[in-house]
Description:
By secondary structure, the protein is an alpha/beta fold.
Amino acid sequence: MNILNLDGHFFVEPLRKMGHTVLSMGQSPGKDVHLTKTISLAKLLAILDERNFKPDLVLWVDRCRPPSVIGIEALPAVTIGYSIDQYCNPWHAPYSAAFDLMLVAQKDYLTMFKEGNLGNELEWAPLFCNPNRDKDRKENRDIPASFVGTVDGSINSERKAFLNTFKKKHPLFVTEGDYVPIYNRSQLVLNQSAVGELNFRIFEAMACGAVVLTEETENGLTDLFTNGEDILLYPRGNAQAAASIAHAALANLDLGQLAENGKRNVLAAHSSTVRARHIIKRAEEIAAAGPSWRQQQTKVVQQTLSTAYNMLAVDEILPLTPDLRNFYATLGQKTFN
Length: 337
């Protein structure tokens, strides 16, 4: 299958290893086609023509940024999107009109997408680990508890206070950057989220062989994991309780078995390879079913996408240039008409 992969690169290598031809495109480094700005459908078609590349599948993967290519809904290929950070990007819901299938990483946010009453397909597809990077190296786990990630941030303003409170009750190694070496030395990895989402840290730490201590939340957490068997849970926002659970677990539990259970679960069901296989399976099913809702309802698609573009134009949190905001505003008005 010829696959045009836009923006997020998580599935490029797994898809290539499966034997598919993948052309990656986006504004981050390492793409086959590196874009310096958002491009139109006409420019995309010119690039594809230059490379003699006719995609069977167009796969857009969220990078918490606006899409690098506009107009993919007009392509004859199957279109599939994967929304990761929908909780801070509400424009993803109307943007889903561009896709025959939209995969949504946070289970509870499917409702937000369904409110549009569109005819396209929606599925919950939890986040995942990268099995080629996130590995258990069988090293000495000399760090009782760790946290690797951004401490200060506009999206998660409560994290710094939470970590500081935890550290007053229990030792915690906190750092940023490459998490793999730290997770391989950690017995416990503490997780805290912005809005109760199931973030990448859960899956990555488990794959590295650490026990994850995360907040008890929704978004499908208990559908995937079981407290005390492959994960440890604390009441959301309660750093003192989290510290107490960490202390008791390190003193009394068989963390080796709990970690092994978590690792086995994640590698079997929640890796980028597993998600890539599912994407191909669904793309084949959609192609075999004939013309999709997107291809039959072009006017509804265009009107719905205008909402997404207008939302992007006025989103003050996104670091967009004035020219790009004007571009989206103009595009939204033209699309609507």
